[in-house]
Input
Amino acid sequence: MTSLLTPYQSDGKYVKVDTYFFERVLSPLYDKVAVLIPRSITPNQITVFGGLLCLTSAYLFVTGQHTAAALVYLGYCTADNLDGKHARATKQCSEWGGILDHCVDGSCSTPAVALTMSVFLGVPLVPVMRMFAFTFFAAHIVEAATGELHMGAGSRWVGVDEIGLLVAAAQYAVGQGYTGVLGSYFPDTDLATVFPRLALITFAMNLKILVEAGSKCDWRKVLLWSPVCAAILACPLGDEADASELEWKPFLTLHAIFFIPLLLVTMANGGKLVASGKEAGKAK
Output
């Protein structure tokens, strides 16, 4: 019987479905960097460090240091890939490592991405946040239910790694004066209502993956975590705010919501942030 929290199948198998660009360009590049990391540094330390880089990038972005924000965000993207590669290379893999990785991604990168794209596209912050949050949780519900992580919601052309590069580019572009891109092209469209509806496309793509998984799919996990997606999509915080404003109160509220699962899982794991390395047969 598999845990309701972890993505591993009953045989311990874990599959990550990567995009073509990641396989052929980014992954070989990260492999070259991973071999330079000392074994004394644990994968979970890299994960937490990456989360701090992501939060730093968000701070630099809102304080007008856009080029620095872009460079630091690229550092986060690198750390987000190096933790797993380092874990496998040094046999420090664990289920907790995988949980920590995804919790940090959700609590740090999802708000940072929403913040950047809100300013760049000219869309109120919270609707963008809800769309990315819904997409994040939908992908990880599929992962928990099937043991396969489809970062591109079934597409092998665009996934989370490509989006990370686009976010860094958007941060730099904002510094060059490119803001409100969508708002300028669609001045009469209520973009605040459009973005959450775009999440339904992600829902359809992930539902297709679940159906195709057939008997491999653990529908208990789908039923357990789906209400989280529904709550995120239905959250009304800040939808009426002007696109030029950064709605910090609802933004920080949703940010805190993402930290709650991280804290709960940390407590359930005995508060450990360092992998024991005893489960070296499993991938992070």
